[in-house]
Design brief:
The complex is a heterotetramer, with 2 copies of chain A and 2 copies of chain B. By secondary structure, chain A is α/β, with parallel strands linked by helices. Chain A is about 30% helix and about 20% strand. Chain B is about 15% helix and about 35% strand. The chains are: A alpha/beta, B alpha/beta. At the A-C interface, strand 11, helix 7 and helix 8 of A face strand 11, helix 7 and helix 8 of C. Chains A, C: Heterotetramer of 2 PyrK and 2 PyrD type B subunits.
């Protein structure tokens, strides 16, 4: 498995594949299908200070090659995650990336401070880009200065490296990336969902109770690839790429674009075995393409010699 | 345990207008624990439709690893499914959810109420109850004559009342009209069907032991994505919600808000 | 066909279906398949002052449920369009919407002035949002003030109503819509393509010679619907909606979202008969859903009573 | 005239490694005018793959409205196609493009050069030339033995030289090696295959009448989208470009820049 190991701030990954936040809960359901220790890492569901119930249902709708979700950050709250979910996950030999969310900067700071103390949390992922909550969320993710500020504040209190998750719903994602890098981010994860809408044929009304939802799945992959390509040439911190990955080829495309590792979201909801499958297939794909080590081809799409960030 | 695998189509036929009976064979059948559980079927070959489709298990033949599902063609996914033929394979995830409790003293009376495409899961339930020497009464409602199915099979298991909205088959009216008229004496009620029907039943029998099977739009079907949530009635409940896919789809009346 | 007629500034449409610019050339190829007079209108390929060769090939790449294109505004130039294409199109009883593009405001003004004189050009569509040209193009489409200015200048010289075509590659499309409305636009057409990228598995390099391309097709539909929903509640001018339409249901979904008419792009490239097919199917769909007139359900997704723009 | 319609699969078989011969029946065959034209096939059921796939016509049986295509499985689309079976239907748009000119005096000599999956369209061409009493010489290049196909059929029509890159079948080398060695005397050259091969031929025979069939990524296939453009060699050319799909795919050497 050596052609596979990737080391990133706070993270020693056995392989570059991990489930994306919100598509894997806290791992319990998937542990019934396979041993979670085979994963590169796990991005757990967004955690907020208080438990959240989230949005009314329907919360999901299908679109051509994608889906909309408006879960609304439902989660059991910081206390329960600290006391039940993280200890449960510690039985597996896998680093946890804790996705954190909030309505105010103070919320982020509170969750970051406490959750970064958990022994198996090796990194934080600031979800400044969730389109499905009314307060905060989206503004944090679209205004560079606000993003920089929240990054800085969280960096101040976190005991582990901080990755910031970028929203694709912006005119120029490079400005956001630069801002969070300036704010001290150790890495970037991208992309979160694109805002979308589906209407019911009979009533003409939105299918989701929340009206709009976040678009994920294969449909968004070319947009995500483009953005990883842009951002990886702009900043000097590593990227964990995501958006529509459902095969080893998709994963490698993100690495070529400039990601150091990748996360698989929606595909877990269709095939619970997708992460182990991609791990196996990717090893074969590298073999077939004569790639010695996954990191050798990070940013291959734009690298002539070596320029910008040299992916680890 | 939940499994994922290819199931072979033993047969598929249209048993009423737009209603298909699909018989599948595969190892997954051995894992089924209770009537009222469902499976999550991959429809289409690629990314469109993207999501699996939840379909209830209607009948089980453990020995031959065979199960039957009955579904109505609604949209893209079920229409695709209806075109698959004998010998072809369907990718199935399941069994999912908890299903109906069947533990009950022999000799007791169970009232089974189904509406439209909610009828299928009651069939295996009724069979299992009968095997436990429980007396079953069925009340089945359909929209119209052409949408009626499985009535003979139910009649073989117990008394069966059929109503249609337009009176084109059986009595005219809703299942609740039958209940009013017959005033059944029963020990437990099971129901599956449209939400207004379930609500009416919940209100009508506040003192009874009532089990309702619910529907909600799903993605994962295994409890991971929080798509299929219902709030609990009990405001003091520790979690405050239930997942229809993994805590349900069957709940005792009063557990969640319909 | 009366439940179908839509009247918009400059346009009396027999039905609300028209081919989108760039996916129908100047109609010649499709005239071999059916009589173009059955169409609501035709949006012709972008025209620039001088002929343009466009980008090197490959110019198209497939994506999950979509495609990328980087044609680069290839067109025979204003003179030839005026002398050959438009006169040829005049044999059909169908209003032409002339899509115009340029690298400078002056370019737009020149083309607008002249092309709006053509007798069968009933409206202009300002393509301020083409992501595949190096100069101008995209800046016009992402900076509100620039968009407003070019709209104003073109309005000054055009003899026919002016529609402005919006880019989805922005943080808040409502700001762009408001800007062009303020600039005097008579209507809005939306959306143009989203910028995307695909990499080749073997080389790791972009498949398109132009590197990035514009994403179109079913994959983008939920984003387009969301944007039409937002913009139709923001401005008081009508919208021609597009993005991933390939069926009568898709067309109706755009109308529900707030479009008064719709355009079909990519789907023409897969099925040359798609426009006539949607026209026939839509009539049946309205029948089935008991909709007396298409305009009755314009904006149904957000309208309680009547508020904002009352679609014609 | 171009048509669009469902064509029935008469047969499909793998004739070499990853090379499939697909025989289709349908009205569209009556519209085919020249060898070297191609069809645009819908692959997959829904939106993925989204675009049609261009495949050359390899042989025509006008009387029975039958045509043969030979293709190599490359990616998703052709792999999907290879799984379709006899009796199933494929949605086909065509015939597209202009194909090879076959007008030529009887007794003249035509040299046909094919590389890999560029070989199929030369087959119908060769047949039609033979029908006009033109002498045909074939030079066909393949990568390796397992990828060789249609050789017997070509041999029946005229002298046929086969080369493989690795020498595992026929001579070792490229088609250009055969040309060097044999120094054929011919009146016209037709070629279809990888661009480097076409370039080499164009350079080698600047004085000859040479027709080359080109490939490019396409979307519409009918000349509407401007995806498949090549610049003309002649800088003074009025348009300055040609569309491979509708002006081509066959061009005389020197018309466009390869
Ligand atoms: C636990 C459970 C058991 C079910 N059992 C049966 C059964 O035995 N027989 C049967 O005919 N139907 C059953 N249904 C409903 C069935 O899942 C839907 O009819 C089906 O998903 C429609 O898919 P479609 O592609 O044809 O329709 P589309 O409208 O194209 O589906 C679009 C999306 O909406 C979802 N959706 C649409 N209708 C429903 C619905 N009623 N419930 C949940 N999701 C929906 C689909 O899953 C899909 O994600 C069950 C639903 C649930 C939740
Ligand atoms: C005029 C013409 C005639 C052709 N005739 C034949 C033939 O007779 N037999 C045969 O085996 N192949 C032929 N090809 C090539 C064939 O079209 C491609 O192999 C096929 O499109 C690959 O599709 P895929 O889904 O398997 O591959 P993918 O790589 O999944 O395709 C992805 C996209 O790239 C395009 N693409 C990939 N390779 C090519 C290519 N070489 N040329 C054009 N587009 C490509 C596809 O059409 C699709 O849009 C021809 C191409 C052209 C342009
Ligand atoms: C059901 C669902 C829930 C999600 N919840 C979260 C979340 O809690 N926090 C977060 O940062 N992203 C969340 N996401 C976004 C994903 O992590 C991911 O960024 C996005 O879906 C794109 O990847 P994909 O196309 O592979 O799904 C969620 C996505 C889905 C589909
Ligand atoms: C091949 C191609 C060429 C296009 N050329 C133009 C153009 O010249 N001018 C323009 O305004 N839009 C152009 N577009 C964008 C379309 O008009 C349309 O806005 C977009 O493709 C979304 O619609 P669709 O998903 O139905 O294709 C082009 C799109 C495609 C696919
Ligand atoms: S469908 Fe995912 S939690 Fe129920
Ligand atoms: S493929 Fe569209 S012009 Fe050739």
């Amino acid at each position: 498995m050596n052609r596979f190991s990737v080391s990133l701030p706070g993270l020693q990954l056995k392989n570059p594949i991990m489930p994306a936040s919100g598509c894997f809960g806290f791992g319990r359901e998937f542990a019934e299908f396979y041993d979670l220790s085979i994963l590169g890492a796990i991005m757990i569901k967004a955690t907020t200070v208080e438990p959240r119930y989230g949005n009314p249902t329907p919360r999901v709708a299908e679109t051509p090659g994608g889906m909309l979700n408006a879960i609304g950050l439902q989660n059991p709250g910081l206390k329960k995650v600290m006391e039940e979910e993280l200890p449960w996950l510690s039985q597996f030999d896998v680093p946890i990336i804790a996705n954190i969310a909030g309505s105010t900067v103070e919320d982020y700071v509170s969750v970051a401070k406490e959750i970064s103390e958990a022994p198996n949390v090796h990194a934080l992922e600031l979800n400044i880009s969730c389109p499905n909550v009314k307060h905060g969320g989206i503004a944090f993710g679209t205004v560079p200065d606000v993003a920089k500020e929240v990054t800085k504040r969280v960096k101040n209190v976190s005991r582990v490296p901080v990755y910031v998750k970028l929203s694709p719903n912006v005119t120029d994602i490079r400005l956001m990336a630069k801002a969070v890098e300036d704010g001290g981010a150790d890495g970037i994860t991208m992309i979160n969902t694109l805002t979308g809408l589906r209407l019911d044929m009979k009533t003409g009304k939105p299918i989701l109770a929340n009206i709009t939802g976040g678009l994920s799945g294969p449909a968004i992959k070319p947009i995500a690839i483009r953005m990883v390509y842009e951002v990886s040439q702009t900043v000097n911190i590593p990227i964990i790429g995501m958006g529509g990955i459902s095969s080893a080829e998709d994963a490698l495309e993100f690495i070529y674009a400039g990601a150091s590792a990748v996360a698989v979201g929606t595909a877990n909801l269709i095939d619970p075995f997708i992460c182990p499958k991609i791990i196996t297939d990717l090893e074969q794909l590298l073999e077939k393409l004569n790639i010695d080590h996954i990191s050798d081809v990070c940013g291959r799409s734009w690298k002539h010699g070596i320029s910008g960030y040299h992916c680890p | 345990m939940k499994k994922i695998g290819e199931m072979k189509i033993v047969s598929q036929k249209e048993i009423a207008k737009n209603i298909f009976q699909l018989i599948l064979q595969g190892k997954l059948v051995s894992e089924i624990e209770r009537p009222g559980q469902f499976v999550h079927m991959k429809v289409g070959e690629g990314i469109d439709p993207l999501l699996r489709r939840p379909i209830s298990i209607c009948e089980i033949d453990r020995e031959n690893q065979i199960m039957t599902c009955i579904y109505r063609t609604e949209g893209k996914g079920t229409t695709w499914l209806s075109k698959k033929q004998q010998g072809e394979y369907i990718n199935v995830l399941g069994p999912l959810g908890n299903g109906f409790p069947v533990q009950m003293k022999s000799g007791k009376v169970a009232l089974l109420i189904g509406g439209g495409i909610g009828v299928p899961p009651l069939y295996e339930l009724s069979k299992q109850l009968r095997n436990r020497d429980i007396q079953v009464i069925h009340v089945l409602g359909f929209q119209t004559k052409s949408a009626v199915f499985l009535t003979k099979e139910f009649q073989r298991l117990g008394v069966t009342y059929i109503v249609t909205d337009d009176g084109s088959y059986g009595e005219k009216g809703f299942v609740t009209d039958v209940l009013k008229k017959q005033n059944f004496d029963f020990d437990r009620l099971y129901a599956c069907g449209p939400t207004p029907m379930l609500k009416a039943l919940e209100q009508k029998f506040p003192e009874k032991e009532v089990y309702l099977s619910l529907e909600e739009r799903m993605s994962c079907g295994i409890g991971a994505c929080f798509a299929c949530i219902r709030p609990t009635k009990d405001r003091e409940d520790k979690k405050g919600y239930r997942k229809i896919c993994s805590d349900g789809p069957v709940f005792q009346a009063g557990e969640v808000i319909l």
